[in-house]
Structure formats: structure tokens, C-alpha cells
Write a sequence for this structure.
């Protein structure tokens, strides 16, 4: 439960002005009434202080004017046209009032939300002036001026001239004309809005997909795709061209796939985006992978490993040589785990080199190589060169072919610690995959330290989390885990989690440590199931075991574990 900090400015100001007693704050703490957000809202919601008293006191202390509903409604306000979403304004309870003399005046309910105010100053490149108003007045103003029966997307599209849209209604689109349109303010703002909305909603990918009659916009949030309001189909070429310009791609080439990268700063965050375009029957499909450095967790202790598995993994990554594999489907967090492992052992005494496709995050003190097959820099050729650079630790982004597998195994046998990923369903399957690639069994048994399989599961939203009752079918799936008199939970859906019931993701893990028993099975070329059974007898917990533990701890749901481990053995 969040604790009320003695240093909270609202507490200090109200006590100094004798608007509330010390006993009232002790009562708030004792009854756990404060949710860790803005203290002023807690005081108002629980009747400790009237909204006008709070605002008047803060206005006097901070020398900030107070506005009422009449200040918003007495005349048509010259509300500035900013690239800020209605969702963001409502969430932060902020109303941009006017833009005059290089200064943006915003009306706020919480004048101590310094992080948001500073982000606005940076993103808008304007001096920020502040006024106060009651929460409900600000929310009504946002609805009146930014809602108005029309969405943000609808208003932005409306600013694109009709004649521009009609001129694009042609099979033979003119590249220069589209370039000009893509360079105009309305289209630029539209693309910026699509990107900023995705970042606000914590999306990992943006999908823009043209079909016969419409354009579909989807964001991948917590691993699942969600559809959102999209621009009209006729703007597809202009939007795609704008994205290509940002990614430094060839805007005249619409017949071949292209890949690029965008670096930008949004709301104070440094964002890298990988851009991929693909020609389809009805136009170019665009996917943008959002790489938000501020969200990268490179700390093994915070990735959700069970204590025993974390201890085993830390032993493996501190070995002087050998090979560690991380396996799982695309989007299961393999690269993040490897980055966290590298960060753990990244010291001045060790030289670390990685070869990746692409380099997703730059890490200080680590030499990172981006493969470029078009010029002959593949995983295999790059790995050969890396070995000659006298590294202590090597990370290979992915083992895709027998040649890369062979070189990485040889590197592990000649005194290097090698990390890599491979696509298999479970840990035991990675061993048989190497055998299928033609790697000799005695080489695998000598070089392989362990295999980590993982998945990402959605975390139940804490704001709408309630106890759940499992139906008999789900109880049966949990098997022996249901004998503990379990209590499970789920999210009912709320604004905080976009009514999905989930917010954020956590990992579930399966760590197979290659001991003498497993080495003997590798030498016998045993199948994956035999290796798996032996590992479980030796104490390995499979993916579902770790999943059920997280269900019992109220982190995720039974349905989520079944979704990400479909096809896996229990």
C-alpha cells in the first residue's frame, strides 16, 4: 500500500495555512485512504477539504490564478492546435488554454505534476504557464473543445483539404504530389498523433493495413492487437510516404519491401522505431516496432524469475565458457533476457561483443554489430570475425542456420561464453533442434550449459482486480495445483487498462540445466520428451508450473497461461 510521504507539498501547505489538522493526515495513513496519486484528490474525495478551499490555498501559496467554468464558457476560446491527444489530457487532467508570445498556458488540477509539465515544455518547445481549476471543470472543457462529437482523428483528417484527397483518388499516383502532401502540416500532425497515441497506450507495434475499402489501424498492447480509429483509405499513400520520409526510405519504390529506422523524442522520451513496409494488393502495409528505452528492464531480478531459477541462471552466466540458449516464439522477451544477462556481467574486465538483427537497444561498454546480409555481413560471417577480436562473451541474436550453430558451438568450446536464441516450444526442444541442424552430439554435450525457455503473460490490472471463480474445465487444466484451496483473480476492465482487464506483462520461465544425466541423453541422441522428463526428475519446473505459481500469486489468469503455453505438455 502506498504510504503518504511527510514531504508531500500539499500536506505541508495545508498544515501551514491551518486548513487541515495533523490528526486528519494520521487518519488517512491509518486507513490507507491514499492511493499514491495526487494527495489533493484524496483529500477532496474523502471529504477532508473542499475543492475550492484546496485550490484557493494553493493559489495563494504558489501565486497561480484560479479559473472557473465561466472562464471557459463565456466566449469561444482560442484553444491552441497542439499534437496532444484527448486521452492524455483527460488522464493528466490538463487543458491547454492559449498560446501567446512563445508561452503555453495550461489549466491544471495538480500543480505538482512536474513530470508531465516538463514533458509538455520539451515536446511543445514552449514556456509553460499554469492556472488552476477544479477537476470536473477541466474535464468538461476537454470534452467541449476536444470531444465535441468528433474524435481527435476525425478533426485532424478534416484539416486535410478535400481537393487533396480527390487528387489521390487515382491508380496512377504522382510521387511528387504525394511527397508534397506528406510534407504538409495536417499529414505530419496525423502521423505524429498515430505514433504518440501508440506510445501513450504502451503499444509495442503500430500496424497500418490497407484493404479494398478502408485502412485499418491496430496497436499491439501487451502482446495483443487492438483496433483503433483509422484515417480514410485515400490518405494511405500520404501517410505511408510521410513515414518513409521519417525513416529515410525510397518514397518512389512501392513494389518492394523496405526496412528503416526512425529516432524521435515524444513527451520527453527517446523513442527508436523500426519501420517495415510491404506492398500488398491494396497498397503498402506499414508496421512500426516501438523501442522505448525507458521501458527496457535490464535487471534480471525484476524480470519475474522464481528464486531458484534466478540463482541457477546467475551461476550459468558467470561461467568462463560454454553456451547458453534462450528459446521461445517471437515477442516472448528473449532479447530482453539476454540484455539483462549481459548487463549483469558487463564489467571492465570482460570484453563483450554482440551480433544482432537488428540492434534493438544500445548498451554502454558492449560492442554491438548489426547484420547486413546485402553486403555479406551475416550471423555466420560476423561471428567468425568476432572470434578474432578476442572477446570474453559473445551474443548471437539468433541461430538460423547450421553454419551459425556450428561456429557458435566451436566458440563456446574454445574459451568463450556464448549467448544465443533459437525458436523452439520448450527448453528440451532446443537441444534436438541443434541435433537436427547437424551439430555433433558430443559437441553439444560438451559446450551447452543450459537452455532457458520463456513466454510473456499479461498481468492483471491492479485497478480493477477482483477474485474470480474458475469453471471445472479450467480447474482440471491446473491439475494438482488446485489441491491447495486456491484463490484466483481477474480484471473486470477499466479505463486504466483500456477495459482489457490486463496492464503490463511478466515472464514465465523453464530453465533446463545441462547436468551429467542430460549430457548422457544428448550423447544417446534422445528425443525432446525423454530429455524433458529427465530434467523434470532433476528438479526442472516447466513453463506451466511457473505459470500456475503466478496465477496463485494473483499476477495473471489461468486463461492467460493456457493461451501462451498452448501445445505445451503439462
Amino acid at each position: 500500500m502506498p504510504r503518504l510521504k511527510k514531504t508531500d507539498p500539499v500536506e505541508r501547505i495545508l498544515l501551514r495555512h491551518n486548513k487541515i489538522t495533523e490528526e486528519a493526515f494520521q487518519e488517512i495513513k491509518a486507513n490507507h485512504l491514499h492511493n499514491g496519486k495526487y494527495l489533493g484528490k484524496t483529500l477532496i474525495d474523502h471529504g477532508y477539504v473542499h475543492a475550492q478551499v484546496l485550490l484557493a490555498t494553493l493559489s495563494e501559496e504558489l501565486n497561480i490564478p484560479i479559473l472557473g467554468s465561466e472562464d471557459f464558457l463565456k466566449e469561444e476560446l482560442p484553444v491552441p492546435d497542439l499534437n496532444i491527444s484527448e486521452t492524455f489530457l483527460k488522464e493528466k487532467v490538463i487543458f491547454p488554454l492559449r498560446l501567446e508570445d512563445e508561452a503555453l498556458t495550461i489549466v491544471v488540477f495538480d500543480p505538482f505534476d512536474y513530470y508531465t509539465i516538463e514533458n509538455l515544455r520539451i515536446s511543445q518547445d514552449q514556456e509553460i504557464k499554469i492556472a488552476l481549476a477544479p477537476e470536473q471543470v477541466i474535464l468538461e472543457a476537454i470534452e467541449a473543445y476536444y470531444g465535441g462529437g468528433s474524435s481527435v482523428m476525425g478533426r485532424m483528417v478534416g484539416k486535410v483539404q478535400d481537393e487533396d484527397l480527390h487528387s489521390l483518388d487515382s491508380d496512377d499516383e504522382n510521387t511528387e504530389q504525394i511527397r508534397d502532401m506528406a510534407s504538409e502540416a495536417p499529414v505530419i500532425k496525423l502521423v505524429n498523433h498515430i505514433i504518440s497515441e501508440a506510445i501513450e497506450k504502451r503499444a509495442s507495434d503500430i500496424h497500418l493495413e490497407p484493404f479494398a475499402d478502408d485502412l485499418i489501424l491496430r496497436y499491439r498492447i501487451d502482446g495483443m492487437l487492438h483496433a483503433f480509429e483509422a484515417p480514410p483509405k485515400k490518405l494511405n499513400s500520404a501517410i505511408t510516404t510521410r513515414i518513409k520520409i521519417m525513416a529515410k526510405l525510397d518514397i518512389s519504390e512501392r513494389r518492394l519491401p523496405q526496412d528503416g529506422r526512425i529516432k524521435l523524442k515524444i513527451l520527453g522520451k527517446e523513442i527508436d522505431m523500426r519501420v517495415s513496409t510491404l506492398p500488398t494488393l491494396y497498397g503498402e502495409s506499414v508496421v512500426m516496432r516501438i523501442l522505448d528505452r525507458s521501458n527496457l528492464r535490464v535487471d534480471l531480478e525484476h524480470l519475474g524469475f522464481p528464486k531458484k531459477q534466478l540463482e541457477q541462471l546467475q551461476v550459468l552466466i558467470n561461467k568462463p565458457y560454454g553456451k547458453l540458449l534462450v528459446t521461445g516464439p517471437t515477442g516472448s522477451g528473449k532479447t530482453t533476457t539476454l540484455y539483462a544477462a549481459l548487463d549483469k556481467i558487463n564489467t571492465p574486465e570482460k570484453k563483450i561483443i554482440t551480433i544482432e538483427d537488428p540492434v534493438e537497444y544500445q548498451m554502454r561498454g558492449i560492442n554491438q554489430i548489426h547484420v547486413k546480409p546485402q553486403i555479406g555481413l551475416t550471423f555466420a560471417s560476423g561471428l567468425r570475425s568476432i572470434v578474432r577480436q578476442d572477446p570474453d562473451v559473445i551474443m548471437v541474436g539468433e541461430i538460423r542456420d547450421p553454419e551459425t550453430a556450428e561456429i557458435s558451438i566451436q566458440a563456446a568450446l574454445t574459451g568463450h561464453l556464448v549467448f544465443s536464441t533459437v525458436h523452439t516450444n520448450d527448453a528440451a526442444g532446443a537441444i534436438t533442434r541443434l541435433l537436427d541442424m547437424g551439430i555433433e552430439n558430443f559437441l553439444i554435450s560438451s559446450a551447452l550449459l543450459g537452455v532457458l525457455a520463456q513466454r510473456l503473460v499479461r498481468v492483471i490490472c491492479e485497478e480493477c482486480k477482483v477474485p474470480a471463480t474458475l469453471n471445472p474445465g479450467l480447474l482440471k487444466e491446473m491439475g494438482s495445483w488446485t489441491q491447495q484451496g486456491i484463490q484466483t483473480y481477474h480484471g473486470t476492465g477499466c479505463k486504466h487498462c483500456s477495459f482489457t482487464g490486463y496492464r503490463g506483462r511478466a515472464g514465465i520461465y523453464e530453465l533446463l540445466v545441462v547436468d551429467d544425466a542430460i549430457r548422457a541423453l544428448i550423447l544417446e541422441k534422445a528425443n525432446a520428451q525423454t530429455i524433458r522428463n529427465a530434467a523434470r526428475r532433476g528438479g526442472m519446473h516447466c513453463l506451466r508450473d511457473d505459470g500456475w505459481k503466478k496465477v496463485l500469486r494473483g499476477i495473471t489468469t489461468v486463461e492467460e497461461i493456457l493461451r501462451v503455453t498452448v501445445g505445451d505438455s503439462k
Notes: The CA atoms of residues 269 and 294 lie 7 Å apart. The longest strand covers residues 448-460. The radius of gyration is 28 Å.
